[in-house]
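Cross-posted from the bioinformatics board.
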Amino acid sequence: MLGSLQALQEVKPPGLAAGGDKPASLPPELAREVAQRLRDAVTAGDVAELADLAAALTARTDSAAGYGEEIQRLTQEFDFEGLLQLASRLDEATTS
Amino acid sequence: MTNELTSSATNHQQPEQLLLVDDNVTNLQVLHQTLDGRGYKLLVAKSGASALAIAAKAKPSLILLDIMMPEMDGYEVCQQLKSDPELKDIPIIFLSALTDTKDKVKGLDLGAVDYIAKPFQPEEVIARVNTHLTISSLKRDLAEKNQELQSVNDILEERVRKRTAELTALNTTYERFVPREFLSLLGKKSILEISLGDQIKQKMTVMFADVRDWTTLSESMSPRENFNFINAYLQWVSPVIKEHHGFIDKYLGMG
C-alpha cells in the first residue's frame, strides 16, 4: 500500500487526503479502468477520448479529480509518454 | 472494465477522422486548435511510426503530415502508406516549412494530394482539408457506382449469353425442318425472325416428286445401279429446278 501511495505521489496533483499529508489513491477498479483507457487512447492517438476521460475524472468530487486535471494537462501538451507513465503508475498502485 | 466513468461516445453519425502528424508539440497544438470543433474526429501522432500504426487501425479520412521528423520523415511515411493497398487511397496533405519547389514536387510525386507551407493560415488549412475530403468522398461514390454498374453489366451479359445459347439451340433445331434456301427466299436469316402475321407476297410452287415403285425397283438393282439411277434423275431434274430459282428441300424414302 505504501508503495502504491508513493507511486501516486509522483502524479501531479495526486489529490491529497483531508489530512494533507497522504496522497489519495483511486479505487483499484477505477484505477485499472483509467489506466486501460489511457493506454487505448494514446495508442489510437485519440485526443478526444483523452479529453473525455480527463473531464469525467475532473467532474468527480473524490480524489479522481486531481488525476483528471493531470490527464488534461498532459493531453493539451500531447505528452503521450507522460500519459503512458501515468497509466503504468496507476497499474502499479493497483497491484502493490 | 467497470465503466465507472461515463463515455461520451453518443454520436450516431461517424465523423470524418483526420490524423495530424508532427513531432513538434507547438505545431500540433496550432493544427489541433485550427481543426478542433469542426465536426472532425482528430487523431494525433508525434512520429512516423505511430502515424503508420494509427492509420492502419483507424483508416482516417485524411492525413496532415509533417515532412521533417526524426527517425522516419514524412516522405517515408507517405511511401509506406501508399504501398499499403488498404491505406493507399487516404489523401495526404504535406505540411512543411520546406518551400523549395523540388520538395513540394517530391511530396506530390509520392502520392500526396496537396502541400501546405508553414507557417500556415488556419483558413487555408480548413479550406484545403474540406476540399480534399469532398474529392475523396466523390471518388469513393464514383468507385461504388462503377462497381454497381459493373455488377449490373455482368448480370446483363450473363443473360445475353444464356439467351444467345437458347436461340442458337432453337435455330439448330428449326433448321432441321426449314431449309436455309427457304429462309433466304423470305429474306430472313433465321427461322426465329419469322413471326405469325408476316406478310410476304411471294408466288411459290411446291413440287412433290415420287418415283413410283421405287422400293421394288431398287431391290432389283445393285447399289451401284441405284446410285446411277438417282444421279441420272437428279442430273435431269436439277437444271430445271435451278432455272426456276428453286431448291430441293429433302429426300424421303421408305428405307
